[in-house]
Amino acid sequence: MLIFRAEPSAAAPTSPARFCMTSLPVQVVDLNWGIRTFPYGDHEVSEIFLQEIQTSQKVSAGPAFVGLLGNQYGHRPLPRLIPEKQFEVLLSTLSKNPEGVQQLQEWFRKDNNSVPPTYVLQPVTLFYSSGEICPPEGVWKDNCQMSALLFVREIPRQRMKDGSKRLAKFMDLTADGLLDAEAQEFLTGLKSRLYATSKKILNLHCVELNSGSIDPKRKEHAEYLDSICQQFISQMTIRISEAEEFDWVVEEARQHTIMAAKLSKSLQGRDGLLGKICLAMWESTLVHHGPLVVHGTAGMGKTTLLCKLAQEMQDVLEAKAVLVIRLLAANHPQRPNINHVLNSVCLQVCLACGLAPRPLMSVSSHLELQQLFQNILEKVSQQGNTLLLILDSLEQLADQYQAHQLRWLPTDVPPNVHLLVSMETTSEAFASMRLRLGTAGNVFEVEPLSRDEGQQIMESHLQVAKRTLTREQKDAVLQSFHASGSPLQLQLILSAAKNWTSFTPTTELLLGSSSEEVMSQLLLKLEEKHGKELVGGALGCIVLARRGLMEAELRDVMSLDDDVISEVYRYSLPPTPSLIRMPPVLWARLKRDLRDQLEIQWTDGVAMLAFSSRLLSEVVKARYLTPERRGRTHRILAEYFLGCWSGRLKPVALPGLTLLLSDRKVPPQPLWFAPGLANVRKLQELPYHLLHAGLWEELRQEVVGSAEWLYCQSRVCGVSSLISDLDQCSQYMDCCETGLVHKALVLMKPSLDILSGHMDRSVFYSELLARLSSLASTSRTVIGQLCSQCDDWLQTCPEPVLIPRSSFLQQPGGALQHTLTAPHGGVLCLAVGAAVRLLVTGSAGGVVAVWSLLDKHLLQVLEGPSGGTKSSCQISYSSDRTMMAAFCLSCPAQDPVAVTSCCVWFGQIWSVTTGHLVDTLCGCNAPVTALLLYDHFVVSASSAADSVQLWSLTYDPSHKPLPHIPAGSAHSSYGSGFSSDPARFCPGSVSERLPVSAEVSCLELAQQKRLLLCGLRSGTVLIYPLALPQETLCIPPPEGLAPVLCLALGSQESLLAVAHWDTLRLFQVATRDGFPAVEGPLATAPLLHAPPSHMALLPHRRLLYGTAGGEVKLHDFGAGVGADLQPHSSGITCVTASNWETHALVGSQDATLRLWALDPVALDHTMEYQGLFFQGVLCAAFADSDRFVFTGSQDQTVKVWDVASGKLLCVQFVYSPVVRMLTFRNGFVGLTLQGCVVQEAFRCPDRVDPDHNPLRNMKARYRVTSREKGGAGRSDLQVFDPAQISLNLVSMLSSKPSSACVLL
Question: For strand 150-154 and strand 202-206, is the pairing parallel, antiparallel, or unpaired?
Answer without folding.
Answer: parallel
